[in-house]
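Morning. Coffee machine broken again, so started the prediction first thing and wrote up yesterday's gels while waiting. Chain of 359 residues, entered below exactly as on the submission form.
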Amino acid sequence: MRHCFVDSQTLWCVFDIPTEEAQIAELEQRTTDPDFWKDQRAARSLMRTLTAKKSLVESWNGMEREVREMIDMIELALTEEDSSVQEDIADATRRLWSRFEKQETRLMLSGDYDDHNALLALHAGAGGTESQDWASILLRMYIRWAERQGYEAEVLDVSEGDEAGVKSAYLDIRGDHAYGYLRGEMGVHRLVRLSPFDADHARNTSFALVEVMPEAEAQLDLEIPADDLRVDTFRSSGPGGQHMQKSSSAVRITHIPTGIVAACQSQRSQHQNKEVAMRILYSRVLEVQRKEAEQARAKLKGERIEAGWGNQIRSYVLHPYKLVKDHRTGYESSAAEAVLDGTLDEFIDSYLRSKVGEA
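Came back before lunch.
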């Protein structure tokens, strides 16, 4: 059980470890039922909840153990007045505080799909090569962020730009609460820089759209009857090699009830392209359902502005000065290169804190 609330200056989060441990014991007891796996969808859902609760409790218990060890170190330092011990305490304190801040942020991730993996879709805006290059920079930024978190990042499908960069790309990020952390990245991202593609190096503004979806687990998060799907094959148009361009290895899948379409042509075989397209389709259908539920709740709170081409969420300025600013929270950083290299935690944290109390 967790409770988060804010006052004028402070975010407070309370995590009830005994209650969580009692719930873990109850869930573990349910897994011993001989009929537990008869309803596999319910069983997988319970196992996912159980794994998440165990991970969270272990993280907090681990920090408690570290605090006790630190107290022992402090007592030793007081008796021996050893400067090296004091340095060790300072280092341990910094590491522990960093872990605490991460766990504090994680307590805010209590949405229906926050514990899921994330599927990012990036789309270059108008502007040709400039925006396509910007989309590829964003793609690298999120890959680097995932690596820093110890997550797995896989480019599922990419449509290469005409001269440089990418027109669009799908990135799968797999890790603990990946969607919960990344959902605030959805929206238009704006870049201001001196153009590397202009002989005069004129100042240029580029836009790219980032979509973030919870990665759906087929038959667990939703079920799609086979009759609701239409599968078409076509020849790959990308630089995937002579075989891919000659054979109909690319796959397009249409969800007939909603008209949602997912396609993939970057993989080496038709089977792999179909598998990726299905993963994208399931996530897109789940995202539509999630948004519909969110909009129904939002009616009680007034109009909600969805992320889209009409409203940018963040600006990255590289000229005439260097500044990255989130327009929703006001948080900004002058370390633009570090941000573009994946240092996004402060932006993610400030967004999550700004949403506390709105759920």
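Residues 1-13, 240-245 have pLDDT under 50 and may be disordered. Going to sketch it on the whiteboard this afternoon.
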